[in-house]
Design goal:
Blueprint (H helix, E strand, L loop, with lengths): L5 E5 L9 E6 L8 H10 L2 H8 L8 E5 L7 E6 L10 H18 L4 E4 L11 H18 L7 E6 L2 H16 L2
Bound molecules: adenosine-5'-diphosphate.
Length: 177
């Protein structure tokens, strides 16, 4: 626990007891490796059936499905940018993923949401940079804008290195306030 509504933990997002978990999907929304594969495995085959009906998702955007066999009621699927060298709008696209997920959460009156470190696996986004973007977007949404439903945001870090990056990013943003 770091700052009121924000929690940081090391673990597996598929195990989290929250209203919604976020999936770092690809544009097809038809499943992949990494966190996407883990979410589909834990949710069961009905998730893929619903995803097929969504007809894909653009980079920087997000779409919601039910959670099926997951502890979470909802999965918000977002498509992060593939990292090139930072000059192709990757930062803004990643920021957009967080904003779109949070906007959908608000729309569905979701009270708790868990995010993985979007784009930092196969898509190669540098972890430190991604953590700063994640933390900034969530803090802005929670504390600077006037939103009602969302009470808790969890960053689920798959390993210690990821956890340390998020902890530093949170410390930095809190010390600048
Ligand atoms: P992307 O294609 O967006 O990079 P990945 O799934 O390859 O997505 O990786 C995104 C992040 O999710 C990585 O930091 C990876 O370590 C992490 N991750 C993988 N599996 C899980 C899981 N079960 N729970 C939480 N985070 C996970």
């Amino acid at each position: 626990m770091i700052s009121g509504k924000i929690t940081l933990l090391e673990g597996d997002i598929t195990q989290q007891q929250v209203d919604a978990i976020v999936n770092a999907a690809n544009t097809s929304l038809l499943g992949g490796g990494g966190v996407d594969g883990a979410i589909h495995l834990a949710a069961g085959p009905e998730l893929l059936v619903e995803c097929r009906r969504l007809k894909g998702c653009k980079t920087g955007d997000a779409k919601i499905t039910k959670g099926y066999n997951l502890p979470a009621d909802w999965v918000i699927h977002t498509v992060g940018p593939v990292w090139h060298d930072g000059k192709y709008g990757e930062d803004e696209q990643l920021a957009s993923c967080y904003r779109r997920c949070l906007a959908i959460a608000e729309q569905y009156e979701i009270r708790s949401i868990a995010f993985p470190a979007i784009s930092t696996g196969v898509y190669g986004f540098p972890m430190e940079r991604a953590a700063k973007i994640a933390v900034k977007q969530v803090m802005t949404f929670l504390f600077l804008e006037n939103h009602s439903s969302l009470e808790a945001v969890m960053f689920v870090c798959f390993n210690r290195q990821t956890y340390d990056c998020y902890r530093s990013a949170l410390k930095e943003i809190l010390s600048n306030e």
